[in-house]
Amino acid sequence: ESADKVVLHTGKYEELIVCSHEIAASTAQLVAASKVKADKHSPHLSRLQECSRTVNEMAANVVASTKSGQEQVEDRDTMDFSGLSLIKLKKQEMETQVHVLELEKTLEAERMRLGELRKQHYVLAGVAGTAATPGEEKPSRPSAAPRSGTTKKPPLAQKPSMAPRQDHQLDKKDGIYPAQLVNY
């Protein structure tokens, strides 16, 4: 459907790329689940793995072709600044900077939304994947996480800190050697 929409100029190239990635990911998930359930030496499993490789190659070809087609269409849309004065050019530059900042803000919001959607997907998949035992109530639907006004990014990973060793504690097997000053 996505490819048809792109060809008819009613769809987006990005949608086609996302669909191709989803197909490849779903195929990989199917193979992983099959590896768990199937016998290691099953001819069907090896055939499934071959088909999975083919699907991945074809999905990569679709993505590459889509990006190529997208670049060709964008190349036709070259910008012409020949009729602009210095002031008009500066005004467009500032408007473009504002637009870029707006897009970055929207992008960050959409990434957060995507993360929440993925979390919810995993929660629902986990709920659907586990059956309730007799006498145990199965949760009907998890509640949505409360949204706060500010979104915090997770802290960056820090380099592990080690207490410095004294010269007499240096150990060559750790790869730590004492520094020696030499005058030439």
TrEMBL record:
The keyword Cytoplasm applies. Residues 130-184 are annotated as: Disordered. Residues 165-175 have a biased composition (Basic and acidic residues). Residues 1-125 form the I/LWEQ domain. Keywords: Cytoplasm. It holds the Pfam family I_LWEQ. InterPro entries: I/LWEQ_dom_sf (IPR035964), ILWEQ_dom (IPR002558), Sla2_fam (IPR030224). It is found in: Cytoplasm. This is Huntingtin-interacting protein 1-related protein-like. It comes from Galeopterus variegatus (Malayan flying lemur). The gene is LOC103584407.
